[in-house]
Amino acid sequence: MDRTLLTFGLILVILLSAYGLFVGWRHRMQRQSGVAELPAAPDDLGEELFQPLTGLYVSTTVSGSWQDRIVASGLGRRAAATLHLARSGILIERIGEGEIFIPVDDLEAIGTAPGIAGKVMAMPDGILVLTWNLGGSRVDSGLRLDDLQEQAAWIAVAKQLVPATSSSPNPDGTSTDQNKTDGASA
């Protein structure tokens, strides 16, 4: 009898926890209902400036607040992804989720950080962070790419699309020099 009560209690705690997570996620989506819709990717991205890279799309957060995940428009869900760099902008193709297109005019900064909501790495350049303007709000999208050497080369090419005066904070509060071409944080 005691074992049955303990099992029932444990199942109840698990169900209440799952319900709490679900309600919290829905409330966050309601609070973020003012977040703009994602820009549609053009049918033709134009000339690709670098070979597509694979990795994990981690999340999009409010810029400068690395734990304030944006869940509206499907931006809060992790997914395997392929990253494309073209003259028109950056395309993040997510498997099982909608694609994210960052027009070159909305791109503000490119750098690396040790973490973003949903993933923290031991290395300072473990997460590729794209800072961009989403309908008037500054946001950071983070990806964990499979090959960090290719990531550094990709950053060097991609920074040519960003104005020379851009800089953005890392999750640890330090500033990333967006004009550096080695892909490392300052």
Describe it.
It is a single chain. With 186 residues, this protein is α+β, with helices and mostly antiparallel strands. Helices cover 22% and strands 36% of the residues. The chain contains two helices and eleven strands. The termini are far apart. Mean pLDDT is 83; it is low at 165-186.
Name the structural class. alpha+beta
Share of helical residues: 10-25%
Gyration radius, rounded: 19 Å
Q: Number of helical runs?
A: 2
Q: Main β-sheet: number of strands, strand sense, barrel status?
A: 7 strands, antiparallel
End-to-end separation:
61 Å
What spatial form do the alpha-carbon principal axes imply?
elongated
What's the gist of this structure?
The protein is of the alpha+beta class.
Question: Which descriptors apply to this entry?
Answer:
single chain; 186 residues; alpha+beta; 11 strands; disordered C terminus
Topology:
Elements: H1 2-31, E1 48-62, E2 79-86, E3 89-94, E4 100-103, E5 107-113, E6 115-116, E7 119-120, E8 127-134, E9 137-145, H2 148-158, E10 167-169, E11 175-177
Antiparallel strand pairs: 1-2, 1-9, 2-3, 3-4, 5-8, 6-7, 8-9, 10-11
